[in-house]
Specification:
mainly alpha, 10 helices, 2% strand
């Protein structure tokens, strides 16, 4: 089945609908007009640029270029994790914990999936490696950001309870157990909801894209199942590591709560 190409003027026609939505939002004073236009502009610019990069990458298929793009994706995702926390760890820790957790979980699961499950030749073939890593990083980033934000906010709000439990002889792990559990649940909720609704409430993007591109629905379904399961595994291990490392950083070697290691974004 041949894919129907889209002319740029057709995309511009759709963009007019976004402008119409922005106009209605402005008239209704919803306060989302600016963010809507900025987000739509970023989508067009970023996707157009990555399209050019991927075309060059697919043509060369050299490992070092793929590794460089993967590194850039990881660093940008780490910055986004740090930027989405209202109360984050001071210094490099906020960036380092999120980036480290995503590196270990996303890269490990992606390489394992490429080598053992899909098996392209070579194993780092950009047609498979870049889309899979992009989906892994995007979803793991959301999970890690949500879990770290819930962790730091909960520790700040419940600092008196935590210190009382420490004075009663509990370790930092025991004093933080409920908060860590809630933080993990927050990080995993998007992935669990996506799996629960897949195929009934929604048709996931990768499956829809493959069907539009002409792939048989049965093949598209297999790839979608693979992607959703690997995303859940990567998100789960990523949030687990981020919450564990972030929680440990909030206590010193004598297991005293160190709220001075937190900083409120835009505040003190």
């Amino acid at each position: 089945m041949e894919v129907i190409d889209l002319a740029w003027w057709k995309l511009a026609l759709v963009a007019l609908l976004v402008l119409a939505l922005a106009g209605v939002s402005l008239a209704a004073r919803l306060g989302i007009t600016r963010s809507l236009l900025i987000a739509a502009s970023r989508t067009v610019i970023q996707l157009a640029l990555i399209g050019l990069v991927l075309e060059a990458l697919f043509a060369s298929a050299e490992f070092y270029w793929i590794a460089l793009l993967a590194l850039i994706m990881l660093l940008v995702a780490g910055r986004e994790v740090m930027a989405r926390q209202q109360r984050r760890l001071r210094g490099i820790w906020s960036f380092g914990i999120g980036t480290g957790a995503m590196f270990v979980s996303s890269f490990t699961v992606t390489v394992l999936t490429l080598v053992v499950v899909i098996g392209p030749e070579p194993w780092y073939a950009p047609q498979y490696a870049i889309p899979l890593l992009g989906m892994m990083l995007g979803n793991t980033m959301t999970g890690v950001a949500l879990s770290l934000d819930r962790l730091t906010e909960s520790v700040w709000d419940q600092r008196a309870v935590i210190e009382n439990r420490l004075m009663l002889g509990e370790t930092w792990r025991e004093a933080l157990e409920d908060i860590r559990r809630h933080a993990m649940r927050s990080g995993m909720m998007p992935a669990i909801n996506a799996m629960a609704a897949a195929g009934i409430v929604s048709l996931p993007g990768m499956m829809t894209g493959q069907i539009l591109a002409g792939s048989p629905p049965a093949v598209a379904v297999k790839y979608q199942i693979l992607v959703m399961l690997t995303i859940t595994v990567g998100t789960g291990f990523g949030t687990l590591m981020a919450v564990s490392w972030g929680g440990r950083r909030l206590f010193d070697e004598r297991e005293r709560l160190r709220l001075d290691r937190l900083i409120r974004v835009g505040g003190r």
